[in-house]
Write a structure and sequence with these properties.
Largest sheet: 5 strands, parallel
CATH topology: Rossmann fold
Oligomer: single chain
Number of strands: 8
Shape: globular
Helix content: 40-55%
Strand content: 15-25%
Bound molecules: 2'-deoxycytidine-5'-monophosphate
CATH architecture: 3-Layer(aba) Sandwich
Order of helices and strands: EHEHHEEEHHEHEHHEH
Number of domains: 1
Distance between the termini: 10 Å
Radius of gyration: 17 Å
Structural class: alpha/beta
CATH superfamily: P-loop containing nucleotide triphosphate hydrolases
Length: about 220
């Protein structure tokens, strides 16, 4: 860790593995800031869909990412002056986010914006490449995962609670395809770094996962 830089806890993992819930729980317990990097990619996706951009057009999409007027306050995300918190969760946005996240130009453009979240007293960041690319000097790196079925069931429950439409079959299919795209892409693919601690939440409650991360953080070596 750079001398004096606030500590970062990086929590990476596949879609619907519970990263957001666990990361927010850890951030709340430590009084740290929270970065939901997936929401950033999703917000770029909304802006791109609304602009009618071609989702393979790296240069246009990088411009959209650079000029994104997005704000993140707790769970609420605004784009321009609009609250897009619910739209962020739709499957159309999930698929588009996964596609544009494969473009190196978009990822590079979003680096500075993500690193700006690193403020005292510390940051919990969740995503796919928090420990490998965005915050390689994180004091603690977690790779959070769960079975495909458990993840689809959680996403289903989340969508139902928000009054949104979904079927388990479609969610299983979508998450499987997204896993494939997120792990196979050439730039910053989703993979567990050698120095990340694996936590499987298939049979673990969110509270227990938070407790495990907090215990690991207390034991993590600190820069002198
Ligand atoms: O975590 P999420 O499901 O909200 O992320 C949405 C998409 O964004 C996901 O398919 C992959 C991409 N993503 C990424 O490539 N890198 C990140 N750090 C976070 C998300």
């Amino acid at each position: 860790m750079a001398a004096g830089a606030p500590p970062v806890i990086a929590i990476d993992g596949p879609s619907a593995s519970g990263k957001g819930t666990v990361a927010q729980g850890v951030a709340g317990a430590l009084g740290f800031h929270y970065l939901n990097s997936g929401a950033l990619y999703r917000t770029v996706a909304i802006a791109a869909l609304e602009a009618g951009a071609n989702l393979d057009d790296e240069s246009t999409l990088s411009d959209i990412a650079l000029n994104l007027r997005a704000e993140f306050n707790g769970d609420t995300v605004t784009l321009g002056n609009r609250d897009v918190t619910i739209v962020l969760l739709t499957e159309a946005v999930s698929v588009a986010a996964s596609r544009i996240a494969a473009l190196p130009g978009v990822r590079k453009t979003l680096l500075t914006r993500q690193r700006a979240f690193r403020q005292p007293p510390g940051l919990v960041a969740d995503g796919r490449d928090m420990g490998s690319v965005v915050f390689p000097d994180a004091v603690l790196k977690i790779f959070l995962t769960a079975s495909l079925e458990a993840r689809a069931a959680r996403r289903y429950k989340q969508l139902m609670e928000k009054g949104m439409d979904a079927t388990m079959a479609a969610l299983l299919q979508d998450i499987r395809e997204r896993d494939q795209r997120d792990t196979m892409r050439a730039t910053a693919p989703l993979q567990k770094s050698a120095n990340a601690v694996l936590i499987d939440t298939t049979y673990l409650s969110a509270a227990d996962a938070v407790a495990q991360v907090l215990a690991l953080y207390r034991q993590a070596p600190r820069a002198p």
